[in-house]
Amino acid sequence: MTSSPSYEDLADWDDLNLLIAEVEEDDPNDPRRLDPRPLPADIVHLNKSISELEEKIAELRLERDRLQGERALIARLPPEILSRIFELGVDYSLELLPTLNLVSRRWRDVTLSCPVLWSYIVLDSEWGWRVPAFLRKLRAHLDRSQAAKLFVDIDLRYVDGTNDAQIIMSELKPHLPRCYTFNISVPEWTRMRIVQEHASELGPALEDLYLRIDSSDMDMETPFSVLTQPCPRLTHVVLEHTPLECVNVAMPALRQLYLLRDQRCHSSSRIVYSFKDLMNIATASPLKWFSVRSAIFSSDTTEEIFRSTPVLSELPNLRGLSFDVVDSASISLFLESTSLPVLGLLSVYSGEDLHWLTRISLSPQQFPSLRLLDLRNFNFSGAGLVPFVRALHQLPQLTGLGLTQPAPGIVGSRFFELFAEGPDVMGQWLLPRLEALCMQGCADISGHELLRVVNARRSAADDEVANISFLKLSQCYLLDPEVLERLASLVHTVRSL
Fold it and tell me: How far is residue 217 from each of residues 59, 191, 226, 271, 479, measured CA to CA in Å?
């Protein structure tokens, strides 16, 4: 998420997988392509000669490559530049480091003299159940990284038992003060406790934190803070199936906060977060982006929100807000309890209940900067379209609208007709400043309805009606190619995915 939301952020739900057609490959054992008869002697002789020539060609190519390598321009690069190139490559792909060590003696000397290359420590499925080998790798990286900041990504679900987890964390403990990224996944609270016991020095250099607990009996455990020191540089936090109590420390630089139920498996259950604890974290940091998935907010009667005239919690820096599979009541609670003066993007996947949107339309002064609205799993059929349109009439400042995966499968033609009709029918234009329309997973979109909206707004006599300048259409499989070409000639930016 960038600091400033853009039209590209609309209708861009990452859990909707694009359907990719499989490429058929020729089967070498296809009986239609085989000849069961033995080869003639002359063909056997020719095949043998071809094999010998191919081996000779391969040898010549190797010799040619060796000679070219000796005079290659890259061999003249000074070690400082070469090491920087290596840094960029390893940062993009960690698997590159072993390859760099095997190219030549000079390249290996360069890699060994560059501490940053050895600052990435990752335990994933590739190293699962190979703890002795991982420990050798871990010690080598810790030694060769010297004083460089560490990137630590440890998945203790691939470790057999708590003893191995103890050993790994003991090796890491003296070096955690220089850790800037700390990603930890554990199967249960017992191993998270091991992490906490060895992470007492973590915090001063920490910038990015990811915590995940697989345990399904989270409500039966007493949460504890994994962090014990203030984190003055921490800007990005992801808590997956992890309570807020696990980060009960000062985070004065926090910019992005993600709360997830479980993104590795699909489940209808939701995790409960204390709304009071969430507000304490949000108001104590310059939060710019907040995203919550598969969650419910809880509250107790002592909170400010139950007063007759509650004081709103101001989030002066929040620019992007996303609710993914969150009930309408929890969304309304958040919006009714906060002041969001610079909120630019609101993405919501809550089902067909649009009470939260009605709440926004009744107090638009709380959202003066709202420009982009992104909806998923909505229902505009029948009477469901009425509250939505009424709410949009109260939000004329919107410039971008995203619609994804409607509940009945279709958006409906009436929706687009309302955007094409002017003051003679509607009394005023619906969203007069609208510049962007983005659709994802809408089965009935052919392009003709969008073309009508684009033409109607281009021909409007009212100068206050903006032209549609951005269209994004993803997984709309009934889209007419000819209409899409026509839209491309009228709209500045058209993306079809």
Answer: 62, 14, 18, 11, 46
